[in-house]
Specification:
The N terminus and C terminus are likely disordered. Helices cover 39% and strands 20% of the residues. Strands 1, 2, 3, 4, 5, 6, 7, 8, 9 and 10 form a 10-stranded mixed sheet that branches. It is α+β, with helices and mostly antiparallel strands and 356 residues long. The longest helix has 28 residues. It has a domain of 224 residues: Regulatory protein AraC (Jelly Rolls).
Length: 356
């Protein structure tokens, strides 16, 4: 399958959704591993076969059938020691999350899955969970149906795409809620906040912070907006997200800064100001605390937009690199037919290939 079939553009070890794209789903195979990379969309990886190790700032985690990794935009990760690791990938933009999927914040399970759990320490923008066999089979059916819609007109099938994505997210939400209720995820993450309905004040606080992250928020100012005592707000917010409001805001700012570093040639100092961290030294400390890399190193390693597209360039997306070599598996290890999913091109040579 050619890159033109994929609704994502590539910039070396960065993937991003192109204009008009909505959701992407498909199956990808890693025979031995895949180098560290990042992306500016929400990614869900579901293990269908084989084994491997997932590596991100939160640590390394061995993967087996039924394991799921959900990653927020900007998170870097990779796969190591893979033995024919087959992953269903489902990817969608953060714009879709804030528009068509904004209602998920009101849902106890999906609000936990998409909005609060990935930010809960020590997730660092990553949520790991596990699907039982029956749930895995249902997710696979929904993802295969999404794959079939890839070439259909969104004008006619937008509802189908969003409906199938919602079914996948519902399966994952139930698994995440069960993991939270048991006090921990399969990778040892603390259960933290339970997948219960968010207090209205917490929902409003999250929206206020997200809508104006550059504002010099103080706990007193936020509490005043909500007509609550600061200590009470902290307790409500921590119960819901596992983090106090200011820590949640720091996660939002780091994520937004990562996207700007990947997609703009703005100076690092300007990006710091744009996300509410005008002090360069403080921005550097906060960004590194979230991603384990300085903003400059993160941009140099994971983005080439500034070098390839100087100011005034008419093309907002870099030209994609060729797909990884596609080849037929040996007969004794042949897998069912599938399509390449959200492949991330890394600075090193990729080792993944499409399942034929």
């Amino acid at each position: 399958m050619a890159d033109v079939d994929m609704p994502m553009g590539t910039s070396h070890d960065l993937l991003h959704f192109t204009e008009g794209a909505l959701v992407y789903a498909g199956l990808h195979l890693h025979e031995t591993g895949h180098p560290l990379h990042t992306h500016s969309f929400v990614e869900i990886a579901i293990v269908r076969g084989g084994t491997g190790t997932h590596h991100c700032l939160a640590g390394r985690r061995e993967l087996s059938v039924g394991d799921v990794v959900l990653l927020r935009p900007g998170v870097w990760h990779g796969y190591e020691d893979c033995q024919w690791l087959e992953l269903y990938n489902c990817c969608f933009s953060s714009e879709l999350l804030h528009r068509e999927l904004a209602w998920t914040r009101e849902d106890p399970m999906l609000g936990y899955l998409l909005w609060s759990a990935p930010y809960s320490a020590p997730g660092r923008g990553v949520l790991a969970l596990h699907l039982e066999q029956s749930a895995l089979e249902r997710c696979a059916a929904h993802l295969e149906a999404l794959t079939e819609l890839r070439f259909c007109s969104l004008d006619r099938f937008r509802g189908d795409v969003l409906g199938l994505l919602s079914l996948v997210l519902s399966e994952l939400g139930r698994a995440a809620a069960s993991s939270a209720g048991s006090g921990g995820g399969p990778d040892g993450q603390a259960g933290g906040a339970q997948a219960a309905r968010l207090h209205p004040a917490v929902r409003r606080a999250m929206r206020l912070l997200e809508s104006d992250i550059a504002r010099p928020w103080t706990l007193s100012a936020l509490a005043e907006e909500l007509h609550l005592a600061p200590a009470y707000l902290v307790r409500l917010f921590k119960d819901a997200t596992g983090l106090p409001p200011k820590a949640y805001l720091a996660q939002l700012r780091a994520e937004r800064a990562a996207v700007l570093l990947l997609h703009s040639d703005d100076p690092v100092t300007s990006i710091g100001r744009a996300v509410g961290w005008p002090d360069q030294n403080y921005f550097a400390r906060r960004f590194k605390a979230h991603y384990g890399l300085s903003a400059t190193t993160y941009r140099r390693r994971f983005a080439t937009w500034a070098a390839e597209h100087p100011p005034g360039s008419s093309d907002p997306h870099p030209h994609p690199r060729p797909l990884a070599e596609t080849a037929r598996l040996p007969a004794r290890r042949r897998r069912p037919r599938a399509l390449v999913a959200g492949r991330c091109v890394a600075a090193q040579a990729g080792h993944g290939r499409a399942v034929p």
